[in-house]
Amino acid sequence: MKKCKFLLESFIRILFVILVLYIGFLNISNLKFDNSDKFFYSFLLIIVTLVIMWLYKKKFINKKIFWGVIAIYLLIGVAVRVYFIKNLNFNLASDFDFVFQNAKRILYGTLASADNYYLSFNGYSFILSWLISLIFRIFGESVTAVLYANLICQLLSTYFLYKIISIKSSKETAGILSVSFFLLPTIIFANLLVATETPFILLFFVTVYFFYKIINRKEFKPINFILFIILGILICLTNYIRPVMTVFIIALIIYYILNMKKFKEIIFLVITIVTYLICNIGINAIIEHNIATETRSGALGWSVYFGSNYDYCGSWSPEDSEYVFNVLEDETKGDKDLIILSLKRLKEYGVGKTARLFQCKLESLWTNNVGTYGFVYDIIDKENTNIDFAQFGAPFDDISRIMVILMCVGTAICIFKEQRKKEDTWLFIELFGLGYILSNLLICLNGRYNIPLYPILIICCSPLIDRILIPKINAKKSKEITKPKNKKEKTLLIVPAFNEEETIEKTINSIIDNGYDYIIINDGSTDNTINICKKNNYNYISLPINLGIGGAVQTGYKYALENNYDIAVQFDADGQHDIKSIPSLIDPIKKGQAHFVIGSRFLDTKSSGFKSTRFRRIGIYLISILIKCYSGKRIYDTTSGFRAANIDIIKKFNESYPSEYPEPISTFELLEDGYQITEVPVKMHERQGGNSSISSWKKVYYMVNVFLSIIIAKIRGVKD
Amino acid sequence: MNVLLKIEMILISLITLALIISKLKNKNMSIKYSILWLLLPILFLLMALFSNTMIQIANMLGFELLSNMIFFITVGILFIICFSLTIIVSNLNKKIVQLSQEIALLKKERK
Q1: Interchain contact, A544 vs B35, CB within 8 Å
Q2: More confident call, A196 vs A309
Q3: Going by C-beta distance under 8 Å and a sequence separation of 6 or more, which residues neighbour residue A659?
Q4: What is the DSSP letter of A315?
Q5: Which of A594, A583, A616 is nearest to A480 (CA)?
Q6: How far is residue B23's CA from residue B26's CA, in Å, rounded to a whole number?
Q7: A376-420 pLDDT per residue, tens
Q8: Positions of CATH 3.90.550.10 in chain A
Q9: Nearest to A649 by CA among A530, A482, A488
Q10: Spatial separation of the C-alpha atoms in residues A574 and A691, rounded to whole Å
Q11: Buried b / exposed e across A185-210, counting CB within 10 Å, b at 16+?
C-alpha cells in the first residue's frame, strides 16, 4: 500500500513537471519573442535561481547569504514595480489620448468610485469592488493608489504562498520559490502590476491556506466555525477561480460528514453552506441583471454551485462599451491604420479586453458592414499575442464541468483516506492543483486566466524541488583516530630533495644526531645530491624522472606504509625546518588528539623566527580564508611543508596525493573527509642555500590552481 | 543578438561547464590541463550575457560581425590547447623513454 502511494505521488509530481514544461512552451510560442528582452531576463532569472539553489545544496553559501539573496530578490521586485508605477506613461500620442483616457477611466474608475461604476464592474465580484472602492475614496480617484494597492496585494500573496509551500517543504525552498513568483512576472508581464486580478490571487492563496488549516484541525473547535464562514465568503469573492474553489466547499462537506461527532457541527456546516449560497446567488443575480444579451451561459443551477465564469461581450456595461466604441469611431473616423494602431496601444497597456470588446461589437452590431470593418478581425488575429478570441462564450462547457465533478470526487476520496490514516493532506492539494490545471487547459490557455496557474504549479512542484535541491543535513562524520599498535611509535622523516647539494649533508647529519629514522627522496636531481648521499651512505630512494614535490612526498608515504611506520613527518632538505620542533609536532598524534598536525609559522608570532616574503604571506592568508569559507576551519599556515601524519593519513596519502601545490589542497581534502587537523607553532629558519621550487612567475598560476582544486574538492563532497 | 540564440549559448555553455566539472570531479582529468578548457564555456557565457559590449569590442577590433570574432577566438583557444597538448605529449614521451631505460637497467642488475 505504501508503494502504491509512493507511485501515485511520483506519478503526480512527474505529471506536474511535464505540465509546467508544456504550459511554459505554449506561453513561449505565444510570446513569439515580441517582448524578447523581457523574456531573456526572465530566463536569466530562472537560471540564477537554480544556480543559487545548487550552491546552497553544495554548501558553497550558507543560510545567511541564502536568505540575503531572497531579500535582494524582494527588494528588486518592489523597486522595479515602483519604478513602473512612477513611470507609467498613459499619455500616448495625442491622437489616441482621449480614447485611451476613457478606457482607463472605465477600468480604474470602477475601482475608485463605486457609485458611478460598480454596476459596470459586473464581470468581477461586486462585493470586493465595492469594498476596494470604499477604501480608495480616501485617496480620491487615484490610479496610482490602485497600483500601490496591487503591489501590496502581490506582497501579501507572496507571503501566503510562502506559508503554503512551507507546510510541506523546507523554509528555504518556500522562500526562494515564493520570491521568484513575485519577481518573475515583473519581468515577463510588466503590465501585471496594473492587472486587477491581483486581489483575487491574494484571495486564492488565503483561501487555500485557511482551507488547509481547517482540514488539519483534528478536533472541532468553535474557531473552525469562524474559519468556515470566512472561507465561504472568501470563495465567493474570488472571481473566475470561484467555480473551481467550490471544490473546497464540497470537499469540506464530505470531510465533516465523514468525521462528525457532535450535532453542533452540523449546524455550523449548514450555516456555512447557507452563507456561501447567499453570497453566490447574490453575485450571480447582479451579474445576470447586468449582462448584455449577446451570450449567456449555464442555467442558474450551475452558476449557483460553480459560479459564473463569464467572459462575454457584455461583461462591461453596455453603456460604457458603447461610449468607448463611439469615441474610438469618432476619433479614428474609420481610418484603418488609426484603428489598428489604437487597438495595439490599448492591448499593450493591459486593456486587451477593450480591444476584444471592439471586435465583439464590430461582429455583432456591424454585421452589415463586415466588409468595411472585417479587416480588424484579420489584424487582431494575426497579431494574436495574449488575446485569444476563442475565449468568447462561456468557458464552462461540458468537459470542464465533468472535470470539476471528478475533481470533487477525487478530492473527497483523498481526504477520506488520508484522514482515516491520520496522514497529512498534502496530496489532496496536489490533486486539486492538477484538476485545476487540467480544467484550465481545456478552457483557455493564455492571458490573465493563466495567472493562478503559475503559483499552483509552484506549490505542487515544491516537494520535488525540495528533495532535489535542498541539502540533507548530514553531520560530517569525524573519523576515529587509530591507535598505534606498538607501544613505541615508529617515526619516519620524509625528506624530499631536488638539487639540494649545499644543504643536504648538514640537514641529514642533524637528523641522524637526533636519532630519527629518515628517507631521502631524490626527485631526479641533476647536481651532486645523489653523490653526496652515496658518499655518506644515507638512506635514500632515487626516482628515475622528476615527479615534482607531490609525487616525491607520496613516494615517501608509500615507503612509510610498506615499512610499518606509525608516524610520518615531512621535513625539508634545505634546512628551513627546525629539528628541535619535531617532538612538539608529533605530540598531538602520540596523545591521540589529531590525525594530522601542521607546523605553523603564523600561530605564535614570537617564536617562529623567519617568515617568508610579503607576497607569499598575502597568498597564504588568502588561501587560509578560502579554506575557512568552504570548510569552516581556519588553518593559519596553509603552505607549510612541515607536517606530521598518523597511520590513517599515511594510508590515505598512499592512495591519492595532489601532484602540484599539494599542501593546501591536501589539507582541504582532509578537512572535507572529516579528519582532525591541529596546528602547532614551530620555528623555521631562512633558506640556507639553493632556490625555492616555486618560481615567481608561477605564483598567479598557483593561486588559480589552488582555488579551482578547492572548489572541485568541495563539489566532490564528503567521501564515505 | 537574437534572444533564442542567447538562450541557446547560455544553455550550451552551462552544459559544457557541467561536463568539464564532472570529469574533474571523478578525477578523469587533472586540474592543470582543464584550465584552458574552462575558458571556452566561460567565453560563451560572456558573449551571451554581455552581447552588446561584445559587439562594440568586435567593431573596435575591426571585425565586421560578432560571430566572426567568436569564431576567431574559439579557433585561437583550440589552437593553444592543441599546442600545449603537443608539448605535454613530448614531455611524456621523454619520461617514458627514461623510465624504460631505467627498468631495462634494473632488470639487468637483478639477474
Answers
A1: no
A2: A196
A3: A547, A548, A550, A551, B30
A4: G
A5: A594
A6: 5
A7: 545 444 444 443 333 333 334 445 455 555 655 665 566 556 555
A8: 491-716
A9: A482
A10: 9
A11: bbbbbbbbbbbbbbbbbbbbbbbbbb
What backbone phi and psi angles, to 5 degrees, belong to A275?
Answer: -55, -45
Alpha-carbon distance of A128 to B32, in angstroms, equals 66
Query: Nearest 5 degrees, angle CA A13-CA A10-CA A202?
Result: 30
Query: Grid coordinates 607520496 are at which residue?
Result: A554
The answer to whether the CB atoms of A660 and B10 lie below 8 A apart is no
pLDDT digits (tens, 9 = 90+) for A67-104: 998 899 888 888 877 776 676 554 333 334 444 455 44
Judging contacts by C-beta atoms under 8 Å, the chain A residues touching residue B24 are 712
- Across the interface, whether the CB atoms of B30 and A659 are under 8 A apart is answered yes
Query: Any residues with CB less than 8 A from the CB of A575 and at least 6 apart, and which?
Result: A503, A506, A507, A685, A687, A688, A689
Query: How many CA atoms within 13 Å lie on the side-chain side of A294?
Result: 20
Radius of gyration of chain A (CA): 37
CA atoms within 13 A on the CB side of B14: 13
CATH fit for domain A491-716, picks 1.10.10.60, 3.40.50.620, 3.90.550.10, 3.40.920.10: 3.90.550.10
Note whether B24 contacts A659, CB cutoff 8 Å: no
The contacts of residue A403 (CB under 8 Å, 6+ apart) are A435, A438, A439, A442
Report the C-alpha gap between A58 and A55 in whole angstroms: 5
Cβ-based contacts of B46 with chain A (< 8 Å): none
Question: Which residue shows C-alpha cell 459586473?
Answer: A122
Residues of A in contact with B17 (CB under 8 A): none
Enter the pTM of the model. 0.67
B positions 33-92 inside 8 Å of A (CB): 34-35, 49
Structure-derived torsion over alpha carbons of residues A120, A123, A125, A129, reported in degrees to the nearest 10: -40
A705/B99 touch (CB, cutoff 8 Å), yes or no: no
CB contact under 8 A, B10 and A47: yes
* Residue of B6, B27, B98 with shortest CB distance to A545: B98
Instruction: Quote the pLDDT of residue A190.
Output: 45
Residues 6+ apart with CB under 8 A from A645: A557, A567, A568, A569, A589, A595, A596, A597, A653
Residue A160 near residue A154 (C-beta atoms within 8 A): no
The model's confidence at residue A215, banded by pLDDT at 50, 70 and 90, is: low
Q: Which residues pair with A577 in a beta bridge?
A: A684
Which residues have a Cβ under 8 Å from the Cβ of B84 and sit 6 or more positions away? B33, B36
Residues belonging to chain A with any Cβ–Cβ distance to chain B shorter than 8 Å: 33, 36-37, 39-40, 43-44, 47, 544-545, 656, 659-660, 704-705, 708-709, 712, 715-716
The answer to whether the CB atoms of A704 and B35 lie below 8 A apart is yes
Q: Which residue from A469, A626, A673 is spatially nearest to A58, judged by alpha carbons?
A: A469
B95 in A contact zone (CB under 8 Å): yes
Residue in this structure with the C-alpha cell 511520483, named with its chain if needed: A10
Of B106 and A114, which is predicted with more confidence?
Answer: B106
Closest to A302 (Cα-Cα) out of A246, A257, A249, A252? A246
Report residue A70 as a C-alpha cell: 531572497
Inter-chain CB proximity B31 and A659 less than 8 Å: no
**Sheet hosting strand A677-681, strand order edge to edge:** A540-542, A517-522, A491-497, A567-570, A643-645, A596-600, A677-681
